[in-house]
Amino acid sequence: MDSVCLDQNYSTTQLLSTERPLIDANSNDNFRTQLFLCEGEGRKGEGGLRTKGYFKHGYKKQNGNKWLVCDVNGQSGSPIELTLERDRDELPLITVITVVFNGEKFLEETIKSVISQTYPNVEYIIIDGGSTDGTLEIIRKYEHAIDYWISEKDKGIYDAMNKGINLAAGSWINLMNGGDVLNGVDIFEHITTNDPQIEIYFSDTIFINQNKKVLSKSSVESKSFIHQSMIYRRDLHKQYGLYLNFPKVTISDYLFFSNVLKRENSKKIDHPISIYRIDGISSNPSHYYQKLAVNLMCGHSTVFKVVVQLLYKIALQVFYYPPYKFLKNIFVNHE
């Protein structure tokens, strides 16, 4: 097997191969990796490096000098010649998945933050929900640096995420929604597979709302985390399944990680992984109420604490936000 570099300037175009990755066809798995998706309802397009015959693999060194190709489960196989400017013993394939719908305003920022990473073995998948704005034009503009993308109708954000996970050939996954960005160009340099106990890397998150940035703290104990600031092993979906996809349920990712994330299987990175734009379903009050319900049912919180948090949120909705919006409109209109 030979390694192909199409462009040194992008994290997604340096370590390519014309040989398809080995897919584990074990029917007992909760999901099965696919390289391409069968055409779904209302498909508007499909493209990327895979459709041109280029694929990705993970790599490990054997005895400190010879590189071996790894399958989607991280198991090493045939030898390969790699010439790298850095001294590393491993290059696990990291898959970044972006789900988007009518996201022309901020999608380009998301794409640039992924393909500009210094880590040379990144796989990038974009799942578009059949956008009607300029989203497809932006995707096509960068498809030379995108491994695979599709545009078609889906059954909600978690259905789109699950499509991306099924397409992931990487042993590590990061979900970076359209509009959110990686916070810096060296994020994936922190990932190592030397410690088999570590299954999740996570960090604090920078929230941005109308150009105002706030740091949101994350911890295992408080069950406070954002999936954009998590990089986790693909195999976790073999153990726990894909994200639940039900009408009006907006916390399937939170439900998944609240059960999976533990002190002994995770490591917190000091540098915030992502910058998260506060809008969409996560800003909806029902999203917050669903989180409280999960914390209570899973034993992550007490009844008293949940009641206090619920009353606080209701008080904000009734007594704070309406006057704030009213006064803001007065001053804005006055100016």
From TrEMBL:
Instruction: Tell me which Pfam families the record gives.
Output: Glycos_transf_2
Q: Which residues form the Glycosyltransferase 2-like domain?
A: 95-219
Which top class of enzyme applies to this chain? Answer: transferase
Query: What is this enzyme's EC?
Result: 2.4.1.-
Q: Tell me the GO molecular function terms.
A: glycosyltransferase activity
CDD domains recorded: GT_2_WfgS_like (cd06433)
Q: Which keywords fit this entry according to its UniProt record?
A: Glycosyltransferase, Transferase
**Classification via InterPro entries:** Glyco_trans_2-like, Nucleotide-diphossugar_trans
Q: What is this protein called?
A: PGL/p-HBAD biosynthesis glycosyltransferase
Gene source species: mine drainage metagenome
The lineage is:
unclassified sequences, metagenomes, ecological metagenomes
